[in-house]
Amino acid sequence: MTEVERHSYDVVVIGAGGAGLRAVIEARQRGLSVAVVCKSLFGKAHTVMAEGGCAASMGNANSNDNWQVHFRDTMRGGKFLNNWRMAELHAREAPDRVWELESYGALFDRTKDGRISQRNFGGHTYPRLAHVGDRTGLELIRTMQQKIVSLQQEDYKQYGDYEARVKVFAECTITELLKDGGRIAGAFGYWRESGRFVLFETPAVVVATGGIGKSFKVTSNSWEYTGDGHALALRAGASLINMEFVQFHPTGMVWPPSVKGILVTEGVRGDGGVLKNSQGERFMFRYIPDVFKGQYADSEDEADRWYDDADNNRRTPDLLPRDEVARAINAEVKEGRGSPHGGVFLDIASRLPTEEIKRRLPSMYHQFKELADVDITKEPMEVGPTCHYVMGGIEVDPDTASSSVPGLFAAGECSGGMHGSNRLGGNSLSDLLVFGRRAGLGAASYVESLAERPVVADADITAAAKLAVAPFDPPADGVDAENPYTLHTELQQSMNDLVGIIRKADEIAKALDKLGEIRKRIRGVTVEGHRQYNPGWHLALDLRNMLVVSECVAQAALRRTESRGGHTRDDHPQMDSQWRNTLLVCTSPGGDPLAPDVAVDAKPQDPMRQDLLELFELSELEKYYTEDELADHPERTA
Amino acid sequence: MGYDAKLKVWRGDNGSGALQDFTVEANEGEVVLDLIHRLQATQAPDLAVRWNCKAGKCGSCSAEVNGRPRLLCMTRMSVFDEDETITVTPMRTFPVIRDLVTDVSYNYTKAREIPSFTPPKDLEPGDYRMQQVDVERSQEFRKCIECFLCQNTCHVVRDHEENKTAFAGPRFLMRIAELEMHPLDVADRSDEAQTEHGLGFCNITKCCTDVCPEGIHITDNALIPMKERVADRRYDPIVWLGNKLFRRGEN
């Protein structure tokens, strides 16, 4: 029998970013015992990297804003492929979730009348993002971390033990979800520090593990973003949707090479920064796509007036949704109008006074000064697209965040549907809060409804342990030993070059061949040393997740023969309304437990509820929908 | 552009360890963490280092470079001469787990001992009103990325293990100041700062401020104002007399 440390909880949350922590708070407030398991230290999750803000239609900066406007913006941003019910819940509930944070102690920037200040961002009709300078994510995560501490203090008063009902298992990695029959029964993993195994016996798991960016070479994501939750869920029998949609943030740093990909917040453009090519031209005016014609300023004068008078002018195309801006930058560079290091220029220096830049964008000032020797108050930044976010993820019920596997819930970036084919900036932090809470509630209700607890089988524990330590064994006869770092680099290069921002059928096929080769070679991955804090071993285990998730991305990307949001096919450059209502669903039919097979099937999405559909004008819907789909629209039947 | 950099990296665990010499390629624009990663990928695959964002935002990769507490991801190689040997060691104040990774649980224990934000009982979410100028003082302290370099460098605990139980450290004394200055926090915190969390240990040598990668004025803006509030409360003779006469301290 494998030596395993055992714990029993009502709910286990995997991931301690915004979604995970919000789920913990909710499940604990329902009176359940909760474990939160995270790969890093408590408070270091990727949410700290979020800069610009958290979108919520509080209407503090412009009283015309309301949830319906936010809902419309979100659907437009996602090119109408979003799960409309998720987009509705998100838009309706975001303001309450933000206000709630203030009662936990968050300190957002203020308006003159003392309310929460809101800033402009790409794709949002009105200033909508609650923010703290350009470190909003840090504020969110610290606030929820401190809220959890306050709940632990309450438990200490009641039980004499801070960890009576909420315990943080930091630097602990889950490698497998275990089931009893069809239901979740537990989660198996290891302590990073000691390498010892740990088993959580639990009827409900909330997966809140974030994204997959580490499958790409140029990314704004940290090492944690290896698609663990996506892969865990897939292996447990859940389905992933929309995996072909990967967001390349238009503005990552491009120089020096060691920082390539690090994020430059959209807040720079929200606060007046403009994109320019090597000829000094504000090129975005040439890239307003047909579906957004009429909604954006078509001259520099109007765009500049908009910052002060948004009611009588249209917004600058610098603030088009991210997919549009990223493609435009890509095109400018390709046509030879790029900056010296292969990006374009982002100029805030000539737009705002020095002191104002330092006040509004302190982290950006600091980041460029420290890492690139660039003073952004005096000279333009060089920026280019960087892999930032995956729209695809675990398919969930919008109201309860439940996956198709009983007891398995998902929230935040690792869930799919909410953002459709492209996420608007600022909608991620609000997504975390809205659906983190709903996942906590969903898990709590599920646990309360159970007549008996599922049981983890010993054989499953043994199998999970065996798979986890396999990299310490020499490879089987006839298999070459592989270095996990080398395989990871090859996988990143291949995804970056062949399934990146612009895609073609033959290149994606080449990437799938390469992934097939890595699938064979991953059996030979061998690591040195022992199990105590061994990064080579950790990478070897994360690599199997990155591989299977990359296959989902590549297979779905090959299948979708159109361009939409975060999926651009050079060989199918148009958006095709026949594809709008089609979801590509990834499942695993089985295969090698190390890296199971991936299958992709198409299925139609439920049609939007009529009252939501009627929030849009027919003329706009016609740009996205087929004629048949709109036959019953009241403007048609009237 | 590239050159061979000379590094000494401390390797070992809480039992024993030693500096190990490495020669590793360094390229233009790189930071110390890039070189540590290159060592992992090419020479020492099991070299343990904690890191996350590699952008100075998460505070994970704290260590000491040539004896100075720093974030490895924000320490540019260009600040050293090419022929200089760079010594990288784990934070000294916390027990080593392995190589550059230390056990920072002291900080999480201290975080739990600070009473949490206490809003007025009748204030509903959505009704919070605060002026920008009033939130800015606490906002400065909330820039903290919890890298714990201030805790590491503070001489009260750096070589005095015995002080750890009674001393919250600059990061968490600053947390008390942050809540004390929060426009809507109603808890009274200054007495406890002195009696429970060890504010009196601090003799304002500003080492914490010097190493803060976020440039927070920990000493001037958090610790000294807290000391002043404590002094007003505990040592002002008129307040002292008032407390005696009206027995305020006993309620």
TrEMBL record, chain A:
Domain FAD-dependent oxidoreductase 2 FAD-binding: 10-429
MF annotations from Gene Ontology: steroid dehydrogenase activity, acting on the CH-CH group of donors
One of the Pfam families matching this protein, by short name: FAD_binding_2
Residue ranges annotated for the Fumarate reductase/succinate dehydrogenase flavoprotein-like C-terminal domain, each copy included: 488-587
Keyword match Transport: no
Active site: R322 (proton acceptor)
Gene3D superfamilies associated with the record: FAD/NAD(P)-binding domain, Fumarate reductase/succinate dehydrogenase flavoprotein-like, C-terminal domain, Succinate dehydrogenase/fumarate reductase flavoprotein, catalytic domain
Keywords: FAD, Flavoprotein, Oxidoreductase
Organism from which the protein derives: Prauserella cavernicola
InterPro entries attached to this UniProt entry: FAD-dep_OxRdtase_2_FAD-bd, FAD/NAD-bd_sf, Fum_R/Succ_DH_flav-like_C_sf, Fum_Rdtase/Succ_DH_flav-like_C, SdhA/FrdA/AprA, Succ_DH/fumarate_Rdtase_cat_sf
Cofactor: FAD
Descriptive protein name: Fumarate reductase/succinate dehydrogenase flavoprotein subunit
Source taxon at top rank: Bacteria
UniProtKB/TrEMBL annotation, chain B:
2Fe-2S ferredoxin-type domain segment(s): 5-92
Entry annotated with the keyword Mitochondrion: no
UniProt cross-references to Pfam families, sorted A to Z: Fer2_3, Fer4_8
GO molecular function: 2 iron, 2 sulfur cluster binding; 4 iron, 4 sulfur cluster binding; electron transfer activity; metal ion binding; oxidoreductase activity
Pathway note: Carbohydrate metabolism; tricarboxylic acid cycle
Regions annotated as coiled coil: none
Entry keywords, A to Z: 2Fe-2S, 4Fe-4S, Iron, Iron-sulfur, Metal-binding, Oxidoreductase
Record has Glycoprotein as a keyword: no
Taxonomy, superkingdom: Bacteria
Listed cofactors: [3Fe-4S] cluster; [4Fe-4S] cluster; [2Fe-2S] cluster
SUPFAM superfamilies from the UniProt entry: 2Fe-2S ferredoxin-like, alpha-helical ferredoxin
Annotated InterPro entries: 2Fe-2S_ferredoxin-like_sf, 2Fe-2S_ferredoxin-type, 2Fe2S_fd_BS, 4Fe4S_Fe-S-bd, Beta-grasp_dom_sf, Helical_ferredxn, SDH/FRD_Iron-Sulfur, Succ_DH/fum_Rdtase_Fe-S
GO cellular component: plasma membrane
GO BP term (any one): tricarboxylic acid cycle
Gene3D superfamilies, A to Z: 3.10.20.30, Alpha-helical ferredoxin
PANTHER family the UniProt entry points to: SUCCINATE DEHYDROGENASE [UBIQUINONE] IRON-SULFUR SUBUNIT, MITOCHONDRIAL (PTHR11921:SF29), SUCCINATE DEHYDROGENASE IRON-SULFUR PROTEIN (PTHR11921)
Entry's family note: Belongs to the succinate dehydrogenase/fumarate reductase iron-sulfur protein family.
Record protein name field: Succinate dehydrogenase/fumarate reductase iron-sulfur subunit
Species assigned in the record: Prauserella cavernicola
